[in-house]
Amino acid sequence: MSLGKEDVARIAELARLQIEQPRLNELTRHLSAIIDFVAKMDQAPTEGVEPMAHPLDLSARLRDDVVTETDQREKFQSIAPAVEDGLYLVPRVIE
């Protein structure tokens, strides 16, 4: 599946990108090449290949789940500009 100039122009419009006409031809070629490459990869034989999360056979190091910081909520709320019922109050930004 190759893209046409109209497709790339529409994609650019949806992404709010302004692309000049001379650059549109070049981008159309590059994006079509990428899509063609992905289509070729879809044809690769992958039967029997197990999905993996990492290319190396490593196990994640685990650590004990222990608290390393003390609760400083009161300290931080004491220096906050506005607090009510334990919540930080902020100015309204959406009317």
Structure summary:
The chain is mainly alpha-helical and 95 residues long. It is built from 3 helices and 2 strands, in the order αααββ.
Strand order, sheet with most strands: 1-2
* N to C succession of SSEs: HHHEE
Helix content: 40-55%
Sketch the major β-sheet.
2 strands, antiparallel
Q: Spans with pLDDT under 50 lasting ≥5 residues?
A: none
Number of helices: 3
Can you walk through the features of this model?
The chain is mainly alpha-helical. The protein has a domain at 5-35. Helix content is 40%, strand content 4%. The protein contains 3 helices and 2 strands. Strands 1-2 form a two-stranded antiparallel sheet. The longest helix is centred in the N-terminal third of the chain and has 22 residues, at 21-42. The model has no long low-confidence stretch (mean pLDDT 90).
